[in-house]
Amino acid sequence: xxxxxxxxxxxxxxxxxxxxxxxxxxxxxxxxxxxxxxxxxxxxxxxxxxxxxxxxxxxxxxxxxxxxxxxxxxxxxxxxxxxxxxxxxxxxxxxxxxxxxxxxxxxxxxxxxxxxxxxxxxxxxxxxxxxxxxxxxxxxxxxxxxxxxxxxxxxxxxxxxxxxxxxxxxxxxxxxxxxxxxxxxxxxxxxxxxxxxxxxxxxxxxxxxxxxxxxxxxxxxxxxxxxxxxxxxxxxxxxxxxxxxxxxxxxxxxxxxxxxxxxxxxxxxxxxxxxxxxxxxxxxxxxxxxxxxxxxxxxxxxxxxxxxxxxxxxxxxxxxxxxxxxxxxxxxxxxxxxxxxxx
Length: 343
Description:
Layout: H1 4-30, E1 37-43, H2 65-77, E2 82-87, H3 96-105, E3 109-113, H4 121-130, E4 134-139, H5 152-165, E5 169-176, H6 185-195, E6 199-204, H7 217-229, H8 240-246, E7 260-263, E8 268-270, E9 279-282, H9 288-295, E10 297-298, H10 308-314, E11 325-326
Parallel strand pairs: 1-2, 1-7, 2-3, 3-4, 4-5, 5-6, 10-11
Antiparallel strand pairs: 7-8, 8-9
Helix pairs in contact: 2-3, 3-4, 6-7
């Protein structure tokens, strides 16, 4: 049980965070010329190798701190309101706390997506001091298997440490689909997350290109039970997943490259983690002209997209500004980057 001092700090920080989130929404409704959310990758290397993931390697070095500072400063200059640090595994970056502090210095919201393996009580306290505001861990199964090692059996002690020490918001995302052997595990994980005082969400695992994977009847049942477990969090804004669960396309206006930016470890802007290769322009050279162009660009991959953060950002603009420009496919020199699919 957390002591009263920790509870008081959590309440204070949650209230402050909520106020800033409402200010973010107000800013987004007034102006369409700035990014709402950016994902930055300071570390592509990961200590795990989940079978469904295409966002890691086991050789990359951390992006130098000064370069991360330049990227964060640039995102702030573009008017970005939230930066989520992802990977790879960002906790492998030796100067992660300084990266978080730089985000907060610009008054942007700071989030982190991690597999949780490297969390200790001391590491969580450092994240508190750095000013982290959101943390998400995806727990894929109860027992590790050949698809994922992010299991409740391995991570439960880490979740207990978060419950005892974290002053920031913690969300536990469980998953169905995409080869997960035991879909009922999602309910076990979601209930455990609620028991520990966290928010709980459910995700549908995409294929290698971030596209639609219709659920089986059993997976749909589990999915709907999980939806009933969810409680107050920005992550609940996910009604688009109902169509995904039924194998139906979504009709929406993807604003990737404008309201949502994915910044890879090389500092290039991509539509998202699953559709890398365009615009593939250095963040240092990205301008409001690029933002306006991509705001009005229709993405062919959008109807079958499962990337929730891009959907969530788009909710603020789906009611306005029809898109008029067809997305340009990635150039042939994009190397091994994932190619954009057309309808």
